[in-house]
Each structure stands twice: as C-alpha cells, then as structure tokens.
Amino acid sequence: MTTDSAPLLEGRDLLQLYAAPTGPTQALRGVDIAVRGGRISAVTGPSGSGKSTLLAVLAMRERPAGGELRHRGRLVAGLSRRQLQSLRRREIGWVAQRPTHSLFPQLDALGQILEMARLRGVPCDDNAARASLAEVDLEEVARAKPAVLSGGEQQRLAVAAAAVGAPALLVADEPTAELDDDSAALVLRLLRDRASQGSAVVVATHDARAIAAADTVYRFRHGVLSGSQDAGRDHTTTIDGQGRLQLPPEALPLFPDRRVVVTVVDGHVELRRAE
Ligand SMILES: Nc1ncnc2c1ncn2[C@@H]1O[C@H](COP(=O)(O)OP(=O)(O)OP(=O)(O)O)[C@@H](O)[C@H]1O
C-alpha cells in the first residue's frame, strides 16, 4: 500500500498534444498532479477540458508529449515496452469512457472477472468471481457477454473487472455516467472499498455523486488544472443579514471570476462555478 507521504504517481508539467485540422490541440498544458494510494481522486471540468487525456496518461495508455510521469519515483518514460506492459497488466485497472472498450467481447461477465484476475496474477475461483459480480449486482448476468448487456450493466461490469484484486492504480473514465442512483452507489462503494484496500482510485467525472464521494477533487479547464480541493474539511462561517457568507481562502481559486451558481438541494446548499 502506498502511504500518504509517497505518491504512487507523480506528474510534473504534463503536456499532451493531438493533431487537429486547425493545428495541434493542447489537451494537457503543464499539469502537476500527485496520486496517492488509499484515496479517491475525482477529475472534473467541462467537456473537452482534458480529463480523459489526463486519465489515459496516468494509466500509461498514452505517453505525454512533454513533462514527466513517475511511478513509485521511477520515470515511466525510462521503462522498456515489456516493463510497461507488465506494469499495466498487473497494477493498473482501467475503465474506458466506453465501457466495452475495457471488456473482452468474447467473454461472459464471469469470464471477464476470471480473465482479469489471471492477467493480474490474483487468485480467483468461480465463487470469488461471482462475489465480484455481486458487488455490482450482476450475479444474474454472469453468463451474458457484453454485447447483450445494457449500458449500465456494461459499465458496472467494466468497473468490477478493473477492480479485481484491488490494483495499485484504478482509473475510471466517467464510471457512473450511465447509472441510476442505486447502481451509482454500488460502484462508488466498490471504489471506496478498493481505496480502503490501498488502491489509488482516479475517476474523471461530471457526476455530482462521484464528486461527493471523492477525497480530492481536481478541476480542469482548457487542459490546465485550475484548482483542487480536499474533502472533509469543514469550515464554520457566519451568514450576514443580507445572506452573504465568507468562503475559506482555499475555495476562492474555484471561482476565479467570482461568479457562482447557488443550488439549494435536500436541505443543503451547493456552490459551483458559473460556466
Ligand atoms: N485522440 C485525439 N485526437 C485528437 N484530439 C483529441 C484526441 N483526444 C482528445 N482530443 C482533444 O483534446 C482535448 C481534450 O479532450 P479530452 O477527451 O481529454 O477532454 P474531456 O475533458 O475528457 O472531455 P469529455 O468530458 O467530453 O470526455 C479536446 O479538445 C479533444 O478534442
């Protein structure tokens, strides 16, 4: 398990470029990030802001065009293809934005779990695999292949498979996007369980349910990390006669132009940046 003092992954000045008809798109522009075991990190921001790109770089599916990524202190760029392949297979769980992209089309749900365990070198028999499916309420489709599952079932299966054996790094792109509240709660509980077993969990998300479940929220804008916030820090403040309140200093970078959308939900108030 990675402790708080030693990040599992450290990205410095990460840059990613993609070719586009109008010239290169800078999908990541100088991103610094440290990812630690035992925590859920949520990466959020508008569509096209670079969330998926960051996840692909952190999961070592893409090499950054610039900057450096270290894994347990070691430069990822210095790993051989074989080392990288073995690291990805054994230590990194990946849930693609389209869940079928991280599933084996020819295997049924039970087979997905067993195959992932085999690749990862984790002991797993049929009973253990069925227990993994039960965590996301998929026991009844144990013999179904991805093509016949609903979008939400595919998504839950992709998360369950990626989470087999609590990999050191578990990266999931929009893991709750297709899910109703009950299913989202199962997935978020599973992610929390793996974090408590030591996994560093990183999700890209627009989903308030996933953001609320995270320990740290990173906010992205135009490929730049515009702020981060640790959960669980309560601040007591007063509201004046006109309804004004003072935000804590660390909340201010979340509202660079000082415009805020205020929503009253279920007896509490949410503040978010006006887009
Ligand atoms: N393979 C690619 N080729 C070319 N451009 C790409 C590629 N992948 C991403 N981009 C561009 O890079 C930028 C960041 O995209 P990315 O998918 O990382 O954003 P995102 O925040 O995950 O968006 P969404 O919330 O819509 O999934 C966008 O401008 C996108 O068009």
Overall 3D shape:
globular
Terminal-residue CA separation = 38 Å
Strand coverage percent: 25-35%
Helix amount, in percent?
Answer: 25-40%
Number of strands: 12
Strand order of the largest sheet: 6-7-8-3-9-10
Largest β sheet strand count, sense and barrel closure: 6 strands, mixed
Q: What structural category do the secondary elements indicate?
A: alpha/beta
Question: Which spans have pLDDT < 50 for at least 5 consecutive residues?
Answer: none
The arrangement of helices and strands along the chain is EEEHEEHEHHHEHEHEEEE
Mean pLDDT, to the nearest integer, reads: 91
Q: What hetero molecules are in the model?
A: adenosine-5'-triphosphate
Tell me the Rg in angstroms. 19 Å
Count the helices. How many?
A: 7
Family: Belongs to the ABC transporter superfamily.
InterPro entries: AAA+_ATPase, ABC_transporter-like_ATP-bd, ABC_transporter-like_CS, ABC_transpr_LolD-like, P-loop_NTPase
Domain ABC transporter: 9-247
GO molecular function: ATP binding
Keywords:
single chain, 275 residues, 7 helices, 12 strands, 4-stranded antiparallel β-sheet, alpha/beta, 6-stranded mixed β-sheet, binds adenosine-5'-triphosphate
Describe this structure as you would to a colleague.
There is one protein chain. With 275 residues, this protein is an alpha/beta fold. 27% of the residues lie in helices and 27% in strands. The protein is built from seven helices and twelve strands. The chain has helices at 51-58, 81-91, 109-120, 126-135, 151-162, 181-196, 208-213, and strands at residues 9-18, 25-35, 40-44, 66-71, 74-75, 92-95, 169-173, 200-204, 216-221, 224-230, 260-265, 268-273. The strands form three sheets. Strands 6-7-8-3-9-10 form a six-stranded mixed β-sheet, sandwiched between helices. β1 (9-18) and β2 form a beta hairpin. α3 (109-120) packs parallel to α5 (151-162). The longest helix has 16 residues, at 181-196. The chain is globular. Bound molecules: adenosine-5'-triphosphate. Adenosine-5'-triphosphate binds at residues 18, 20, 25, 27, 45, 47-53, 204. Adenosine-5'-triphosphate is lined by residues 18, 20, 25, 27, 45, 47-53, 204. Keywords: ATP-binding, Nucleotide-binding. GO terms for molecular function: ATP binding. This is ATP-binding cassette domain-containing protein.
